[in-house]
Specification:
The structure is a homodimer of 343-residue chains. Chain A has 343 residues and is an alpha/beta fold. In chain A, 42% of the residues lie in helices and 17% in strands. In chain A, helix 10 links the parallel strand 8 and strand 9. Chain B binds a DNA duplex (30 and 30 nucleotides) through helix 1, helix 2 and helix 4.
Chain lengths: 343, 343
DNA sequence: TTACCACATGGTATCGTTACCATAACATGT
DNA sequence: ACATGTTATGGTAACGATACCATGTGGTAA
């Protein structure tokens, strides 16, 4: 039922002034232990709850953080960004409003307006996949931090995955297992940071092990499983075929498994495989489970929130652009390639 | 920058009273077109935004809806429930606060308390998978609706998937393609509604086609890919092997693909497969794409929100328990089994 | 003794908006 | 002419919590 008690009610009940009640509620000093107890009892007995609207009205702070995204709330990929933000926010007594905007600017602007109307203290903008974003101008009216995306002019703080280290770790893992011919089905289009970074990491690892980069076993992973299947098959039929595959994402690795098995080859005995993204449902239901690289969604969310708390004061200094590590998650899809080690 | 304009400021600027401004803002009658224009101009020029805290303080309504869940925000499975709620809420000018609670009662109670402190108008409680839930007592202090879960005593409105029709559709699809031996790896434990319902649906469809229920090709799909792989293999080695599989979820179907292919069998030419859940990343990256049954997450979210809007007045009448349809999503993993049709 | 400070306490103005009341102009019906 | 109703308008008291100010106690240093 509607319980509309105010601090006046408990003040009366406890036989004190409203100010004293407020002091107890906010842990302010100058309240005798005796009265504090009385107030707490009264609160308990009447089962009173503070009205946060009134509270925030007085202080001009709303305690609201906006979480804006192109479509992250809709998709499973980056759900952990939300979790990261949420947990950090909860600890800081902030409330997160999650909204998604379409991709077009006008819709975004309207949603930002919605947040501004509610006087959010800050906005976190997250993208579903690591990419450059363009934001509506009105977002600058409130502190904003980006997660899993960035602006061309770097005018806002931003956290993105360190794709290079991810690509490096995946490749190095295969090299250390003795593989020297490692096919790479990179994500695409090639201009996006994931594709660029992972390729650099791949090359770095190869160079470290004195393996020449061979363009003929580099392909692209697109959003069409059939096409990826064909690409994988083609590489397996290469005159000098790879002994290992590095797939740009776990979904493609999954399709790759099919192609490899269809050729009568075993994983990892004949072919080793590494993926990227650590999509848990895919990774743990492949046989054998897929070794992959984790995208730091949770960490980006946490970083973004904490950045927002700081952001308040500092202003025109260069906004930080954070690269967050991508750890390797090892499972059973990589095996030693002893013949090569022997050479 | 901090822009602390109030309706007083625009009242002054427009040369009218604050009441008139408020009337314009809320589309109330009794404002001349002339003054309405002046006010709108002033709002535009000063780029004023309403303070929702003050607004809600006055009206006692906070416009807040709490979305509570055991772990849905953490997992990709039921993300669409959120989307359903969110979109309905946005249209109704409500703000959704998403929070997750652990499984234990004390944590839940604390999180509900957090929501109550903020005077939410209602709570939607969602579960990650369809199951019975127990809720902390304090949740009854505010209208609450359940999505993808239910209470033993049915004391709150609830929307759950119609598992029976789902199981029926999946099985019927295989029967219509001519299959008569259909292995079923049901979800488990057997006491959960998903397992019970789908089994009933499976039996119903068999009965309709005069096929006897054969316990020897019924198994369980557990959260261990290896074990499911073994189960699938075992069924394939059955003296009278199935020509089709109905897997209790897409993850298990995915593992099933591996087991079937490892036997040198083709999908769908030799073996037809149907899944359950419509987990998009799995469904569309299997080769061939998996025919499956959709869980109505989005619809449950929408239903729950709309129910909350109604719930306000009605009280002790029996709270509705809604069964929501599970449509079949057809892809390429099912093929005609003409031999059987010929018999 | 006086002056000053730390602690304790409550009254009240205030935050920005809207509900309510009061006022006024003008039209309509009797 | 007068009562009654519709439209327009603005002043002001709430809403509930907190910041600020005022007051009062007791203790300690000068």
């Amino acid at each position: 039922m509607s319980n509309n008690l105010t601090i006046k009610d408990i003040a009366k009940r406890a036989g004190v002034g409203t100010t004293t009640v407020s002091r107890v509620l906010n842990d302010h000093p100058y309240v005798s232990e005796e009265k504090r107890q009385k107030v707490l009892e009264a609160i308990d007995e009447l089962d009173y709850r503070r009205n946060f609207s009134a509270r925030w009205l007085r202080g001009t702070e709303t305690g609201l953080i906006g979480f804006l995204t192109d479509e992250v709330a809709t998709t499973p990929y980056a759900v952990d960004i939300i979790r990261g933000v949420q947990e950090a926010a909860f600890e800081n007594e902030k409330v997160v409003m999650i909204l998604n905007t379409g991709r077009d600017m006008e819709a975004s602007e309207a949603v930002v307006e919605f947040l501004l109307e509610r006087h959010v203290e800050g906005i976190i903008y997250a993208a579903m996949f690591h990419r450059e974003v363009k934001l509506p101008q009105n977002i600058y009216q409130v502190p904003t931090v980006l997660a899993n995306c960035f602006l061309a002019d770097r005018s806002l703080p931003s956290a993105v995955p360190d794709e290079v280290i991810g690509g490096y770790r995946a490749t190095k893992n295969l090299l250390e297992a003795g593989h020297r011919r490692i096919a790479f089905l990179n994500v695409c289009p090639p201009a996006i940071p994931a594709a660029e970074g992972r390729l650099i990491g791949y090359k770095q690892a190869l160079a470290e092990f004195d393996v020449l980069f061979d363009k003929s076993i580099i392909g692209v992973a697109i959003e069409d499983a059939k096409a990826n299947y064909v690409t994988t098959t083609r590489f397996l039929e290469h005159p000098n075929p790879p002994t290992a595959f590095f797939f740009g994402n776990d979904r493609t690795a999954m399709t790759g498994y099919s192609a490899i098995m269809a050729k009568g080859l075993r994983i990892p005995e004949d072919i080793s495989v590494v993926g990227f993204d650590n999509q848990i449902d895919i990774v743990s239901n492949l046989i054998p489970r897929l070794t992959t690289v984790q995208l730091p969604h949770y960490e980006m969310g946490q970083w973004a929130f904490n950045q927002l708390l700081l952001h308040d004061d500092e202003d025109d200094i260069m906004p930080p652009q954070e690269l967050i590590d991508c750890p390797l998650i090892e499972h059973e899809s990589v095996a030693e390639k002893t013949e090569y080690l022997a050479t």
